[in-house]
Amino acid sequence: MNVDESKQELFHMVVHIKIDFEVWHHNMLKGRDVMRQISTVQMKIFENEERLINGGSAFFLRLVDRRLRDMYQRRDILIDMMKDLFEALRRHNASTQCMLSRVRMWHDDELIRDHYIALNFSTTQFLEFLEFLASRYEAEYEVKEVVVLNLHRMRNAHDVDILESCWRDCIHAGGEEFQGRFQEFFLATTRRNMMRNKEQPINSRLRSSTSCN
User: Fold this and answer.
1) How do residues 20-73 score in pLDDT, each as one tens digit?
2) Among residues 36, 27, 49, which one has the least CA distance to residue 173?
3) Are the C-beta atoms of residues 48 and 64 closer than 8 Å to each other?
4) Smallest Cα–Cα separation from 199: which of 91, 96, 100, 123?
5) 3-state SS class at 121
6) What are 62-112's pLDDT values in tens digits?
7) Of 130, 145, 36, which Cα lies nearest the Cα of 87?
């Protein structure tokens, strides 16, 4: 293991996590909007399916059937959008787990364990934060997976409400504790603190990614 290269990658992991946090937040908000649209379309589908069951004139039933086909198509497009967002979350989660695995491995080396990535932020502190972050992202990812897998299985308004709320309410990667830990991380690893760290390898600014990208 090259100690200097590992220190450089630690530096860029910190930067990468900050970027990932913004991307994760953006995808969650976008998912909320798409889920609202899915909920609206699905409720209209239920309404029109009920009309078919109740019957009516041939013209009326053809009209309802045409509306349903359009709504099914619209819903499927929206569900595909949710699948794309979920895939982005999967990559994000995998990247975080990869970083955690690498930092755990490097932490066995005393030279890296005692290294300070920022002025007052050590590798050990980074490992503790990564363990917290990875566990929260993994748990939230599993919830979102349940949502996406069940979007074609909604049978009533209750199902719709449950799935929409499960995406909207980030009980694992959200809330006061999660936001508070991230705020502490951001404050400890400001650009100024990282650049003032004399232990930081000189060429650490030359790389723009980590091995977990």
Assistant:
1) 999 999 999 999 999 999 999 999 999 999 998 888 888 888 999 999 999 999
2) 27
3) yes
4) 123
5) strand
6) 999 999 999 999 999 999 999 999 999 999 999 999 999 999 999 999 889
7) 145
Give the Cβ contact number of residue 171 at 10 Å. 12
Which residues, 6 or more positions from 37, have their beta carbon under 8 angstroms from its beta carbon? 78
Q: What is the pTM of this model?
A: 0.86
Going by C-beta distance under 8 Å and a sequence separation of 6 or more, which residues neighbour residue 131? 100
Amino acid present at 115: H
Q: Cα–Cα distance between 132 and 112 in angstroms, integer? A: 20
Calpha distance 148→78 (Å, rounded) = 11
Q: What is the DSSP letter of 208?
A: -
- The rounded distance, in Å, linking the Cα atoms of 98 and 156 is 39
